[in-house]
Structures are given as C-alpha cells and as structure tokens.
Amino acid sequence: MIDGRPFRQVGVDDLRPGGLICVADHASNHVPTGIELGIDPALMNEHIALDIGAEGVADRLARRHGIPAHIATVSRLVCDFHRKEDEAAVVPTTSDGYLVAGNIGADVETRLARYHRPYHDALAEFIGEARPKLIVSIHSFTPQLATSDEERPWEVALLYNQDDRAARHAIRLLGEHGLTVGDNQPYSGKQLNATMDRHAEAQGIPYCTVEIRQDQIANEAGQSRWAMLLADVMGRVALEV
Length: 241
Description:
- The protein is an alpha/beta fold.
- The chain has one domain: Zn-dependent exopeptidases (Aminopeptidase), CATH 3.40.630.40.
- Strand 7, helix 3 (165-175) and strand 8 form a beta-alpha-beta unit.
- 44% of the residues are buried.
- The chain has 5 helices and 9 strands, in the order E-E-H-E-E-E-H-E-E-H-E-H-E-H.
- The chain starts with 6 loop residues before the first strand and ends with a helix.
- It has helices at residues 54-65, 108-130, 165-175, 194-199, 220-240; strands spanning 7-10, 20-24, 69-72, 94-95, 98-99, 134-141, 156-159, 181-183, 207-213.
- Helix 3 (165-175) crosses helix 5.
- It holds the Pfam family FGase.
- InterPro entries: N-FG_amidohydro (IPR007709), UCP029730 (IPR011227).
- One of its GO terms (molecular function) is hydrolase activity.
- This is N-formylglutamate amidohydrolase.
C-alpha cells in the first residue's frame, strides 16, 4: 500500500481528456499488517493472491506508453476490488479450491471501508478527470486451474458484459497479430465484470477488459512486449469506438 491507500496511480501528468487509461484490480499480493489469511505463504505468489504480470503491464503502459494507470496495492484475498460490495467473494473464504481460513468470520464492513470504497472512489475521480475515450482493464489468467485438467488455449481474451463495441475491434486486431484470442473466455464478462460494469458501462464509456495468459507476461520481457502490443492495439480501438 502507498501512504495507506489501496491503490497507486501512475502517469497522472499524462491525463488528458479523450485519451486512454488503464486499470489493474488484481495487481498486488500485499497483505496489510494485522490481517492473517491463514494460508500457505507460498500461495501468495500464485494466482489466487494476484494476477501475475498484470502490474508490470499496467505500469509499463503508464510509464512508457502514456496511458495513465490506476493500480491496486492490496491482494484480492484481502479484498477483491473486482467484486461488488454485496458479493460473498469480495472477502473470499475459498479460492481455486484453497481454503482462506483467516477470512472466515472476517469483518467485511471494515475491509470494505478501508480498501474497497477508497479504491473505487479514487478510480471514479480518476476517470472523471481523464474523461477517457477508452478504459483498458488488465487481468491475467492461469494456463490451467488447480481444480481442473482442462487447458486454456487462448493467449489473450476480451471480456465484456453488454457493451462489446470496443472488445469486438480488439478481438479482430489481436487476431491479426496471429494470436489465439478468447471471446468472453476463460471467464464470461456477463458474470464477472464488476469494475467495468460500474465505471465504464454505467457511464457509457467504451472499455476493453483484457485477460492475458500468465505465461505470456510472467517476466519483464513478456510484460514489455504486451504493453507495447496493447498500447498499439488499444490506440487503434479507441479510433474505432
């Protein structure tokens, strides 16, 4: 956390009306002092704690490509910013088959007040100042879930709920790069789209929720490659919507 805030913002000097911004809800595995999750510490480097590689991509989009970023600084196991306040998973007690024992009986209201609401209030202000042409939400997914034998073949995917106007362009443009692109895979934005439902769809702002397979962005070289690719593709998408 930065100065006690559950987020950090990068590239705010580049905010300009009608530009692009990016958001990374699951960018951190940080657990604030005083919270005990009751899980194997090794799991804090796995997908249940954060979207591996997402922070590096979002940070590079901001620092190298002029796309300001709003980046989470608290683990999704402490408070999941990509869930609505009234969803049980906002403070998860299980994740991908693992029990998060420390969250059983947790004071959910305190977690919401300390982390979830400040994160989303600041994001709303960030978007209000930017008045963006397009919001890019960065996530990553595992090649295979721990609870499943099914492999996930997509290198990248676009998620959306009702507003698919930007996603359609992105799917086409990424496909032209020779990538295997998922359409509302491996998760459906019809069910999992809380942040963009609130800050994009509800405001009529076009958006792309981008899910990158983790092996693509597990190291700095991959993160740099994908930041460069997304900066180009999303810039072109913004011209179309």
